[in-house]
Write a structure and sequence with these properties.
The complex is a heterodimer of chains A (332) and B (173).
Chain A (H helix, E strand, L loop, with lengths): L1 H4 L5 H36 L16 H11 L10 H17 L18 H22 L3 H32 L4 H6 L6 H4 L1 H14 L11 H4 L9 H26 L14 H22 L5 H30 L1
Chain B lengths: L2 H22 L3 H21 L3 H25 L15 H24 L13 H11 L2 H28 L4
Helix pairs in contact in B: 1-2, 2-3
Classes of the chains: A mainly alpha (332), B mainly alpha (173).
């Protein structure tokens, strides 16, 4: 990959990168398919029911495939009073950044696409663009519930992006780099979850909020807003919004693994198990925790959400940066 | 015809198209979306200049800023489309003067860009530019940086006070 990145540009390179990108997209789609199934199964288990168990054998292995097929065949409706160009553009605006973000994530030391110096900032910056798609979709639908959902998404993104960045700054301070490879390398002996526990907790809460998942799923609160910002969407445009959401779940779980759980580094004594397996294990644990949150927490009210973001997470993250800077100055 | 040139052409085209659309569209939300395309392609131009930190910060700041602007656009403007008469008023001389001014500005910018000379020291700026920006900001330009943060703080406090004043007139709940 390294020599490929430094080679002279040519059409062969374009073809190679296109192929690699398509392969990654297929991999992510496979994750999304089985991630959704896993979510429904785990939630079913936690709520004392079976979950999908009809399509594709006892474990419902083809349930999501059938759902996607149904979505593809569905009629694609665009409301008469909707703002047509923006209504069409919005799902694309929401999904494209979700996939762009994956480019900088180092899954293992060999399996990564772009090793850029500001990888961490790139992730946070580009993931913020999805909110524009969500607000656009909410506005273009010309529906009050959709608009409220979009507004909530914007408010939530603005207030939780700050604690997210602030909590990560502790890790950046200790590593001395924004490059995700350097951050993983710095965790060779001790993972940052042990040296930066406060940052980890703030990051996890802010991450769940950025993902718009329960307990922070106000933009798509079914019981208040019918379905949130995508009420008017159907068929494959709706699937694009869902896809963006689950690709972000993938990306955020991978980012948590990279930042706090040591990426592909093994637990001590167990170095004979290869790096990709370790990454997959840690990644699955993070995904499971996120599903667990969804099954167990009640939804917050809008004012509680703002209060938690600005009055709890923000000061805690600031204090964490201050303490980290002090410790680094005094003891390292 | 290198890859960089093609990328520049594509990004510049998107940036200019976004800008022109922003001026020509009638609905506020459409304008904001056009603006998004301009800002993102400008970030792409920064990447071409190897200023990756500036590019990423451009996206980070403007994605939030644009979202907020869109909310204001939605909340503070009327939604009934007013297709007002759009014929430009003003006589021949006014139009001619405007045209001359536009051309003069274009020529001035063109000449300015071609005469621009950054000297020799720019050659190594692209290596580790995040670190270099940090070093410069916190060693040579600390006081301007701090003053900027004080101004932002004043703006924040001012906004809170302005927003609070509205409340006093309303009955207390």
């Amino acid at each position: 990959m390294e020599q490929l990145l430094n080679s002279v540009p040519s059409w062969t390179n374009v073809a190679i990168f296109f192929g690699l990108g398509a392969a990654l997209l297929l991999m992510v789609l496979a994750f999304v398919t089985y991630g959704i199934l896993a979510e429904r199964k785990v939630m079913g288990f936690m709520q004392g029911r079976y979950g999908p168990n009809q399509v594709g054998g006892r474990w419902g292995l083809l349930q999501t495939v059938a759902d996607v097929l149904k979505l593809l065949l569905k009629e694609d409706t665009i409301p008469k009073a909707a703002d047509r160009p923006l209504f069409i553009l919005a799902p694309i605006l929401a999904f494209a950044p979700a996939f762009m973000v994956l480019a900088v994530l180092p899954f293992t030391d060999a399996f990564q696409f772009a090793d850029i110096g500001v990888g961490l900032l790139y992730y946070i910056a580009v993931s913020g663009l999805t909110t524009i798609g969500v607000v656009t979709g909410g506005w273009a639908s010309n529906n009050k519930y959709a608009l409220i959902g979009g507004m909530r998404a914007a408010a939530q993104m603005i207030s939780y992006e700050i604690p997210l960045v602030m909590s990560v700054l502790g890790v950046v301070l200790l590593t001395g780099s924004l490059n995700l490879n350097d951050i993983v390398e710095a965790q060779k002996n001790v993972w940052y979850i042990f040296t930066q526990p406060v940052a980890f907790i703030v990051f996890l809460i802010a991450a769940v909020s950025e993902l718009n998942r329960t307990p922070f799923d106000l933009p798509e609160a079914e019981s208040e807003l019918v379905a949130g910002f995508h009420v008017e969407y159907s068929g494959f445009r709706w699937a694009f919004f869902m896809l963006a959401e689950y690709v972000y779940l993938f990306a955020m779980a991978a980012l948590t693994t990279i930042l706090f759980l040591g990426g592909w580094h093994p637990v001590m004594f167990l170095g004979f198990i290869p790096g990709p397996v370790w990454f997959a294990l840690k990644f699955s644990v993070v995904v499971f925790v996120l599903i667990w949150f969804r099954a167990t927490f009640p939804r917050l009210r809008a004012d509680q959400l703002m209060e938690l973001g600005w009055k709890v997470l923000f000061p805690v993250a600031l204090a964490n940066i201050f303490v980290t800077a002090l410790v680094k100055e005094l003891f390292f | 015809m290198s890859g960089e040139y093609l990328a520049f052409l594509a990004l510049a085209l998107v940036a200019i198209t976004g800008g022109v659309l922003m001026l020509n569209l009638t609905k506020v939300v459409h304008m904001v979306i056009a603006l998004v395309f301009t800002f993102i392609s400008i970030a792409g131009l920064y990447v071409l200049l190897s200023a990756e930190f500036v590019a990423v910060v451009q996206v980070l700041i403007y994605s939030g800023a644009v979202t907020i602007m869109m909310l204001f656009g939605i909340m503070l403007t009327r939604h009934q489309e007013e297709e007002g008469e759009k014929t430009t008023t003003g006589g021949f001389w006014r139009k001619a003067l405007t045209a001359i001014a536009v051309f003069a500005f274009g020529i001035a910018v063109y000449l300015g860009v071609y005469r621009l000379d950054f000297g020799e020291e720019g050659a190594r700026l692209h290596e580790n530019n995040t670190e270099q920006i940090g070093m410069a900001l916190y060693s040579h330009y600390t006081i301007p940086f701090e003053i900027a943060s004080v101004i932002l703080l004043v703006a924040l406090v001012g906004a809170i006070i302005l927003a609070k004043k509205d409340d006093e007139g309303a009955p207390k709940s």
